[in-house]
TrEMBL record:
Name of the protein this chain belongs to: Flavin-dependent monooxygenase
The keyword Methyltransferase belongs to this UniProt entry's keyword annotation: no
EC number(s) reported in the record: 1.14.13.-
Task of the protein: An FAD-requiring monooxygenase active on some tetracycline antibiotic derivatives, which leads to their inactivation. Hydroxylates carbon 11a of tetracycline and some analogs.
């Protein structure tokens, strides 16, 4: 096998790959565009599932460290209607299979588990080209290049490595989140804090094209994803450089909703941030190309469905395990990894299917019933 393995992107996928390789004694080098580990806030909480993300953490030998990061109580879940009535409410009794942790803490855990110097910060990849014989040359924004015999694109939705393998490109799915935060919620926004509860909350109206998702993060912070199914040019007409005007415009789509819910838009302590959802074609594949593969969103970006980070971590762990199992046959390792990854990422997710199946003017009630049914059969 060519070492060090060259990994592009220090997200959860790339770092899990680097860590599990290291556990198996295989060196790697990670090139990351961001200038430092703290250059960007890493977003909110991730629930790490026992059937994918937690398997990766086990493979990384970090189960104890992970347990120390879990935010207890955050697996509580409730469904509200737009008037703020609670239709479904499940407490966190500590037995759920989806413990929540902050993405920044997870990333820090993975970074701290790697030999120092593994991640080369401030290395934005601009492109890569095949040199023949399974070797590739990667180009960086500063004009430098690196040649490698084993290249892994872990560089997310807009991967610069993906074009080596496939022409597939992300497309807008028609829905976006607008992200907001409310700090010190119990004292400054008590009604909204009560509505969100101790974990996650989803509030739906009769129309399926808007919803409010929120969760309680560490401390007393509420983090909301305001969900709107609208074309991109609808959002383009909103001036997000004027936070108050943008919040007012978004809140207008929730006319008639309970004020403790719309406060998640109008009372945000941060400027609302637009997060359009993109996807690659579900189930797309590529022909095996020597010396290069992809993990995580670079391989199988989907609209957020609660699985993306979990799958990226599992991809990273399984690729590392395949390389460790075939030290003298990199192509066999890459083929084995890709076959399992393609199968996994082609499978539709229950959550996405359920949401697509809802229609009519009683969506909040349908959703609550679904969760009640699931709760009784789980
Ligand atoms: C709003 C939102 C909410 C989500 N919530 C959840 C959730 O609750 N649970 C869940 O499992 N998933 C969730 N996801 C999906 C999840 O964030 C992704 O699937 C996951 O982060 C993919 O991991 P990754 O390592 O493949 O890519 P990323 O996390 O995107 O990491 C890619 C890394 O590559 C770097 N990079 C990018 N381009 C370059 C370049 N040219 N050169 C060098 N480095 C580069 C980036 O800076 C980044 O560090 C959510 C997504 C969104 C948008």
């Amino acid at each position: 096998m060519h070492v060090p393995v060259t990994i592009i992107g220090a997200g959860v996928g790339g770092l899990t790959l680097a860590r599990v390789l290291w556990v198996h004694g295989i060196p790697s080098v990670v090139y990351e565009a961001e200038p430092s580990p703290t250059a960007r806030a890493q977003g909110g909480m991730l629930d790490i599932h026992d059937y994918n993300g937690q398997l990766a953490i086990e493979a990384a030998g970090l189960a104890d460290e992970f347990r120390g990061l879990v935010l207890h109580g955050r697996q509580a879940f409730r469904v509200l209607d737009r008037d703020g009535n609670v239709l479904f409410d499940k407490a966190d009794d500590g037995t759920g299979g989806r413990p929540e942790a902050l993405r920044a803490d997870l990333r820090r855990m993975l970074l701290d588990s790697l030999p120092s110097g593994t991640v080369h910060w401030g290395h934005k990849v601009t492109g890569a080209r095949a040199l023949g014989g399974g070797r590739h040359e990667v180009s960086f924004a500063d004009g430098s290049t690196v040649a490698t015999g084993l290249l892994v694109g872990a560089d997310g939705a807009w991967s610069r490595i993906r074009p080596l393998l496939t022409d597939a490109a992300p497309e807008y799915v028609g829905t976006s989140f607008v992200e907001t935060y409310l700090y010190d919620a119990a004292t400054r926004h008590p009604a909204t804090a009560r509505a969100v509860g101790g974990g996650s909350m989803v509030a739906n109206g009769p129309a399926p094209d808007v919803a409010i998702n929120a969760h309680r993060e560490n401390g007393d912070t509420l983090h909301a994803y305001i969900q709107l199914t609208r074309p991109l040019d609808w959002f383009a007409a909103i001036d997000f450089t004027d936070p108050a005007a943008a919040a007012t415009r978004i809140a207008a789509e929730f006319d008639g909703w309970a004020p403790e819910l719309t406060a998640l838009i109008t009372d945000s302590d941060t400027a609302p941030v637009l997060r359009p959802h993109h996807t690659l074609p579900i189930g797309h594949k590529w022909e095996r190309q020597p010396g290069v593969t992809l993990v995580g969103d670079a391989a199988h970006l989907t609209a957020p469905n609660g699985e993306g980070a979990n799958l990226a971590m599992l991809d990273g762990a399984e690729l590392a395990q395949a390389l460790a199992a075939h030290p003298d046959d990199t192509e066999a390792a890459l083929a084995e990894y890709e076959q399992a990854m393609f199968t996994r990422s082609a499978a539709p997710f229950d959550e996405a299917l359920v949401m697509e199946s809802l229609f009519g003017d009683d969506i909040p009630e349908q959703l609550a019933e679904l969760f009640k049914d699931h709760d009784q059969t789980a």
